[in-house]
Amino acid sequence: MIWHESIKVKLIGFFLFVSIVFLLFLVTSLSMLKDSQVEKNALEQARLSTLDIVADLKNTQSKMEENVMVLASLTAEKFSRNRLTSKIVLAFMNAMSNEDISSGGVWFEPYLLNSSKQNGSIFFNKNENNKFILMDDYNFSENKSYREMEFYVLGKKMRKGETFWTKVYTD
Question: Degrees (nearest 5) of the Cα angle 55, 61, 64?
Answer without folding.
Answer: 145
